[in-house]
UniProtKB/TrEMBL annotation:
Keywords: Methyltransferase, S-adenosyl-L-methionine, Transferase. This is protein-glutamate O-methyltransferase. SUPFAM superfamilies: Chemotaxis receptor methyltransferase CheR, N-terminal domain, S-adenosyl-L-methionine-dependent methyltransferases. Residues 1-278 form the CheR-type methyltransferase domain. It catalyses: L-glutamyl-[protein] + S-adenosyl-L-methionine = [protein]-L-glutamate 5-O-methyl ester + S-adenosyl-L-homocysteine. The lineage of its organism: Bacteria, Pseudomonadati, Pseudomonadota, Alphaproteobacteria, Sphingomonadales. SMART domains: MeTrc (SM00138). It comes from the Bacteria.
Length: 278
């Protein structure tokens, strides 16, 4: 299917206007694959015909469907296992020490996609229940896509999805097989919340977070939008909290507000802040 340059530019502009993400030339090969099911569903013959419908403005909801189809929702449980090992072995125990007085933790997974990262976090706490007994653990997952947030909230995954990143014991312990897939146990679903949210708008209500995971989201933003995102994330972080990024992301040269935590490699903190108990 041939896609004209003008159609590509219109789709790129729509995606950036709605989400801040760029559809770079290296990602434009995905257009046909990403939109093919939507075209079949709506009986639209080509992407150029889709663009004509969008430009005429007769179906406002269609543009939302297009944007959601273009978003990269690749994720899996305990993705890139090393960051979760860092949380489990060092970061969460240190946060437990810092928050012993309040016995409250707030964690935000920004750009959570279908929820695997959020359920992975919930499993870390559930599998160390003795440490966290009597604590209030607030875990919130957000994404710009309404449909993907609905999927995350339902917590139901295909056989392929549930096996990506999970051992057989974890899968059996924390997921129930249903006629429509493997659903996260009620105890996990009750411990977390999901909402539609754009990181460029600031933090989800209420307050600041002790830990923010924003992994493999900022890669798709242009420089100015990425700086704005870092400003919002910084304002959402507790004074002694941590930000975790994806393996290919960094704050170096991107934000004057954040720096690498030398004692907790792989995490970032606000500059000029001495960690202290909340």
């Amino acid at each position: 299917m041939q896609i004209s340059d003008s159609s590509s530019r219109i789709l790129a502009g729509l995606l950036e206007a709605r989400t801040g993400q760029q559809l770079t030339m290296s990602r434009r090969w995905r257009l046909e694959t990403a939109l093919s099911s939507l075209l079949r569903e709506r009986g639209i013959a080509s992407i150029d015909e889709l663009i004509t419908i969008l430009v005429m403005g007769r179906e406002p909801s269609l543009s939302t469907r297009v944007v959601e189809a273009l978003l990269n929702n690749e994720t899996y449980f305990f993705r890139d296992r090393v960051p979760f090992d860092l949380l489990e072995s060092a970061a969460l125990p240190e946060l437990a020490r810092r928050r012993e007085a309040s016995r409250t933790l707030r964690i935000w997974s920004a750009g959570c996609s279908a929820g695997q990262e959020v359920y992975s976090l919930a499993m870390l706490f559930a599998e160390d229940a003795a440490r966290w007994n009597g604590w209030t653990i607030d875990i919130v997952g957000t994404d710009v896509s309404e449909s993907i947030v609905e999927r995350a909230r339902a917590g139901t995954y295909s056989q392929f999805e549930v096996q990506r990143g999970l051992g057989i014991q974890q899968m059996i312990r924390w997921f129930d097989e249903t006629p429509v897939g493997w659903r996260a146990a009620e105890s996990l679903r009750k411990s977390i919340r999901f909402q539609v949210h754009n990181i460029l708008e600031g933090a989800p209500h209420p307050g600041r977070f002790d830990l923010i995971l924003c992994r493999n989201v900022l890669l798709y933003l242009n420089d100015s939008t990425r700086r704005k995102a870092f400003d919002r994330l910084s304002a959402s972080l507790a004074p002694d909290g941590w930000l975790m990024l994806g393996a290919g992301e960094t704050v170096i040269g991107q934000s004057p507000l954040l720096e690498t935590d030398r004692e907790m490699r792989g995490l970032y903190r606000l500059k000029d802040v001495t960690a202290k108990a909340a």
